[in-house]
Input
Amino acid sequence: MDCQDDLRAAVVSYRARIASLRCRSEAEPTDAQLQDELARTHQSCAETLQSIADASHDKYDHEAMLEQYHASLAVRERLVQADLDNALWQRDLLISHKRIGDALRDQGNLAAALESYRAAVPIAERLAQAAQRHVRPQLDLYFVYAGMALIEMRLGECDRALDAFWAARAVMASLKAKLPDDPNWPIYLDWVDGEIAKLES
Output
């Protein structure tokens, strides 16, 4: 079997696991751990389909990938609604929105991609505000702002793109001030400064 065959076999396995988890979750709808496993399995299936689609360029593989990402998102939304204080589940929901946005962007569906990124923004802002001393939520917010800015720029919305880039820069500047010895922050700052310079020139 070649790599594509291995990936497609993995998708079959994921789909069987999803079917089993769905049956169990319908019988035990309040079992959050079971719902979380279902969401993660949908996401793993989507990621595998994304690897297939990247190689095949087949629209049906892309559609199947998005279907799995959206299925994961739907479960994540239910979990968050059931426990609004669970930061881990909120981050999982944020990542689901972002990955759908990335997939739609790569397919050239920029308007829909932007909607996904905009849905991610308030979640990322809330998590970053609640954990200002932690790096991961700040990085999540930086990448959401930056990703949204790139889509706005491709749509020709330069003012909105510039606002998002400046927001990303503010997050990264704050991280650099708190952790000045990290070698990654100057790289991220240089990149976003370059994007801002392009738009302001």
About this structure: The chain has two domains: 1-83, 112-201. Residues 1 and 9 are 10 Å apart (CA to CA). The first helix runs from residue 3 to 27.
